[in-house]
Design brief:
Layout lengths: L3 H12 L4 H8 L3 H8 L8 H11 L3 H5 L10 H12 L19 H16 L3 H21 L2 H24 L3 H15 L5 H18 L3 H15 L8 H20 L3 H18 L3 E2 L4 E2 L1 H14 L3 H8 L11 H17 L3 H14 L1 H4 L3 H13 L6 H9 L4
Antiparallel strand pairs: 1-2
Helix pairs in contact: 2-3, 2-4, 6-8, 7-8, 7-9, 8-9, 9-10, 9-11, 10-11, 11-12, 11-13, 12-13, 13-14, 13-15, 14-15, 15-16, 15-17, 16-17, 17-18, 17-20, 18-20
Length: 402
């Protein structure tokens, strides 16, 4: 059985676009030593040799030996402000950030800041989002605290939006408990907003998503379906926001059903959502919902991948019309990651590389946080029988395989 260093040495070498001979020469070790390590014929390797190889590969000796966790792990320092801003609580002494009202933002400026922050979220610009969101949450909380009447209800709507973004980014970064706290607070603010029915339904989408992240798929499906029933557009209702929220809830319900092992129920729910997308008659891309026929088609591809049918996934993808720009970058990138996985399953490695490259170009920050991209890239490297070139090596570095 190959040792961790055997697998890692071959993977890192190919990811750096080096031959065994080039690595051996650069590290001043014998090419036979490199070959024997990669084949697993050497059960132990001298620390000095490990250090030389690691230096050339630009990784740490611990990484080469397989002693480090996965790359792109979230550091506490990266999310300290986000955690603080989500969990701030006026009911707990010392956790209140509402006292400084001298720098109170006006509602219009808060709405503008909220839209820009949402834009960073859907474009997958994580660094910008982690900087802007704590400020948005603090400003929204202060405005809620300092206002009353209609202005307070409008501020509650913007606070709900900010908490939803907090739930989204926390979930993306694997902080599921923090995502749950943010989703609950979004729901509380939504019920006090100036459009409680719609805002509550939108916030429930994030509650459902966090339940799925926690593995509570039955609960997630039940909550999503109940919320969808309450917001479902009537026969002649042309409220596009309502249609979008309804459809997104059904997407979440279908996803939960699929993860519970009920592919048929998931397909039925997806079919209802797809019909609603066509009936809506126009693309919806706002803080309320992302709901266009293209997104519904993405869901069908995703389901085929999860059901273990990569051929159908690629076939369905080939029938999707080109985007008109309404679909957020991270959704487009996520679609490419699913297609890369499907292509890799069929051993269509060059096609998988193309999809990984497109995903990186669409949402470079976002894809670095997605385990699927790193998994597919790692598999492509392991399957490579020869050097794949600089572009391949750059992709490997971006997806954190190095």
């Amino acid at each position: 059985m190959p040792t961790p260093i055997a697998e890692n040495l071959a993977r890192f070498r190919k990811a750096r676009n080096l031959s065994q001979e080039e690595l051996a020469a650069a590290a001043s070790v014998g090419v036979d030593t490199v070959g024997r390590i990669e084949r697993g014929e050497r059960r132990t390797t001298r620390p000095a040799t490990v250090a030389k190889l690691a230096r050339v590969l630009a990784v740490s000796p611990d990484a080469l030996l397989g002693l480090l966790p996965e790359p792109h792990i979230v550091r506490d320092a990266d999310v300290a402000l986000l955690r603080h801003s989500i969990t701030a609580n006026s009911e707990v002494p010392g956790l209140d950030n509402l006292n400084d009202t001298g720098d109170l933002i006006d509602p219009r400026s808060l709405a503008t800041a909220g839209h820009k922050t949402w834009r960073a979220y859907v474009d997958g610009r994580h660094s910008e989002l982690l900087h802007a969101l704590p400020v948005l949450l603090t400003d929204a909380r202060r405005l809620v605290h300092a206002s009353s009447g209609d202005e307070n209800a409008a501020a509650q709507r913007m606070l709900s939006t900010a908490y939803r973004l907090g739930a989204g980014i926390a979930g993306r970064l694997g902080m599921d408990d923090l995502a749950w706290t943010a989703a609950e607070r979004a729901l509380t603010a939504a019920r006090q907003s100036d459009n409680p029915e719609i805002d509550t339904a939108i916030s429930l989408r994030y509650v459902v998503w966090t339940l799925i992240k926690q593995g509570r798929t039955d609960d997630a499906e039940r909550v999503a379906i109940k919320a969808a029933e309450q917001i479902e557009p009537r026969m002649f209702d042309r409220d596009v926001a309502r249609a979008g929220v309804f459809g997104n809830l059904l997407f979440n319900a279908a996803n939960a059903a699929l993860r519970s092992g009920s592919g048929d129920r998931a397909n039925d729910l997806l079919a209802i959502a797809q019909a609603a997308a066509l009936r809506a008659g126009q693309d919806i891309a706002s803080e309320a919902a992302i709901f266009v026929p293209r997104v519904a088609a993405f869901q069908a591809v995703d389901h085929a991948v999860r059901l273990g049918d990569p051929e159908t996934a690629l076939l369905l993808a080939g029938r999707i019309a080109d985007s008109l720009g309404a679909v957020p970058a991270f959704w487009e990138a996520g679609h490419r990651l699913h297609l890369a996985y499907a292509a890799a399953q069929l051993r269509r490695d060059q096609l998988a590389v193309r999809f990984l490259s497109e995903a990186r170009d669409l949402a470079p920050d976002w894809v670095q946080r997605q385990p699927l991209g790193a998994s597919v890239m790692r598999g492509l490297i392991d399957n490579a029988t020869r050097r794949q070139g600089r572009h391949f090596a750059d992709l490997a570095a971006h997806y954190g395989v190095l």
